[in-house]
Model the fold of this input.
Amino acid sequence: MRESEPRYTKTYTFVERLRIVLPLAAAGLLSLYFVSYKLDEVLEDIHCQTYLGINGFSWVWASLFIGLPLLLLLSVVIAEGKNCIHALKLGEYPRPEKKVFFKSEILSGKKAKLKGTYILLATVFIFLFLLWGIGQAFHPPEVDKSVYEKCIS
Done:
């Protein structure tokens, strides 16, 4: 093979794609159902609930500012961590042995290192957002005391 010919990664088979996509689609539909139909019922009196000695509103606030950024950070690191390190060390993106959904050319040299740098910067940005969120989570806004009158009755 000549130097100028592009190299391509392997692609998943149809069955492998189904094994990956179907559980994710089911989780997405379940989440959509919960957000669309059940979230209003839960949030209506969340401030009246206490979980492990912590007010329910504080749980929602912490999951919004800590849980979601942490989930995003873990997803990026799990999905692209090895590719990023490989791109920065060896200058190839994605790794030649990695399977992908669509046929893609293996980048090499500066392009690959730039792609790895972008992923690393995105990870750092998400981590900084997580740190900012921790500060926000420990200082939730004050809840009007009249809201708690519903809890007593």
Observations:
- Helices lie at 14-44, 56-90, 110-137, 149-152.
- The chain has four helices and six strands.
